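Recall the central idea of this unit: under ordinary conditions, the amino acid sequence of a chain determines the structure it adopts. In this exercise we apply that idea directly, starting from the sequence alone.
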Amino acid sequence: MPLATKMKKAEIEEFFARLSKALPEPKTELEYKNPYTLLVAVVLSAQATDKGVNKATEKLFKTVDTPQKMLKLGEAGLVQHIKTIGLYRGKAKNVIALSHLLVEKHGGEVPHDRAALEALPGVGRKTANVVLNIVFGEPTIAVDTHIFRIGNRTGLAPGKTPLEVEQKLMKVVPQAYMMHAHHWLILHGRYTCVARKPLCPQCIVRDLCKFKAKTTAT
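Accordingly, the structure predicted from this sequence is:
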């Protein structure tokens, strides 16, 4: 599949200006209480919906909001809370293992360090980017399936891999919009630029998008 025609600098500026105007303060749809519960929620969200994760963690996070409490709950106890989520057994093992490491190496705190985050079980580059952005206010972009699709479909940042799309986005997103770019793109992909049939007629950046097979109203 050939990469899309790239958007021009002025088009990218206008692209984010419109998304910003429509939603000035975008936020993650994952529900969390503190940096630790956000980290757990993001790990659980792999190949699962935020809605599904929130439903599973609603009761869990009311009583278990630190790695120490998670270790006390144990893997079997955690499984009972998250068994409605896909791949829940593997995720439970990872959450218990990363909780051990947080207690042993980081005093029970979520580290403000990419390498340390990625060293935690179940935490890859995407998860680390989410935590660095939301918890520590770093201008990172976590490329999930939505952002990968938008980067390629619109011509914003065409790339063959998530890392390539991320690196291109870091270069082309205007500095003024970098902090929230991650959330704008995810939400746009989740609700407008959807995978099977994008809602082009109601898209606020339709005229800037390089997608040739735009949908029309039916």
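The mean pLDDT is 95.
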